[in-house]
């Protein structure tokens, strides 16, 4: 089974590349995050502000899909900005011009109707100001931008066109003590019974 063409695996780097057009690495941290953050995770992200978190939130298949699955992959950007010199600065920006308003405006502009090369077209579905439950820091503001990316995938993308290929599906996971060295095997041959 070839996971190189799995929709989520292909979308993430293409979405990050699109975001980097306006959010350079020297000023903005962009990383994958879970859809729901714990307070401890959020504390870590706030220290990296201005921060953009990319979360996969689900998949909505098209009811008319046949063997080739088509639908929408659902994604969320979590935008975090921190400024200590006043309410206006948090939203309108500082001497570099960065603020939550600009981050949200630019993220929406980058994603709405954007063709993600080799993947599909993105559509912004909502943008909201949000709060982090249990977090109290007057210097931090947060927003989220939800978007969907159209996709099509089929068993052919995974090299699963024959019954024999389907019979080889299996997975083995080798976990190391250090999570940074965890290795997962994508392809496993199952023994014949």
Model description:
By secondary structure, this protein is an alpha+beta fold. It has a single domain, classed as STM4215-like (2-Layer Sandwich). The chain has 5 helices and 8 strands; from the N terminus they run αβαββααβββαββ. Strands 1-2-3-6-5-4 form a 6-stranded mixed β-sheet. Strands 7-8 form a two-stranded antiparallel sheet. A hairpin with an 8-residue loop joins strand 7 (172-174) and strand 8. The protein is globular, with a radius of gyration of 20 Å. The model has no long low-confidence stretch (mean pLDDT 82).
List the SSEs and their pairings.
Elements lengths: L6 H14 L8 E4 L6 H8 L4 E11 L7 E14 L4 H6 L7 H12 L3 E2 L3 E11 L9 E14 L9 H5 L4 E3 L8 E3 L8
Parallel strand pairs: 1-2
Antiparallel strand pairs: 2-3, 3-6, 4-5, 5-6, 7-8
């Amino acid at each position: 089974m070839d996971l190189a063409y799995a929709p989520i695996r292909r979308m993430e780097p293409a979405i990050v590349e699109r975001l980097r057009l306006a959010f350079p690495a020297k000023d903005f941290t962009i990383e994958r995050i879970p859809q729901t953050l714990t307070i401890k995770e959020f504390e870590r992200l706030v220290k990296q502000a201005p921060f953009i978190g990319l979360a996969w939130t689900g998949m909505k298949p098209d009811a008319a899909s046949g063997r080739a699955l088509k639908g929408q992959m659902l994604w969320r950007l979590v935008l975090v900005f921190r400024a200590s010199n006043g309410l206006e600065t948090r939203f309108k920006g500082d001497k570099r011009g960065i603020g939550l308003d600009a981050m949200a405006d630019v993220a929406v502009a980058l994603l709405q109707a954007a063709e993600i090369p080799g993947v599909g077209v993105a559509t912004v579905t909502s943008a909201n100001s949000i709060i982090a439950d249990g977090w109290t820091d007057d210097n931090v503001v947060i927003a989220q931008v939800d978007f969907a990316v159209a996709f099509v995938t089929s068993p052919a993308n995974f090299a699963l066109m024959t019954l024999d290929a389907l019979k080889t599906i299996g997975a083995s996971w080798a976990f190391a003590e250090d999570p940074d060295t965890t290795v997962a095997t994508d392809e496993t041959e199952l023994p014949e019974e």
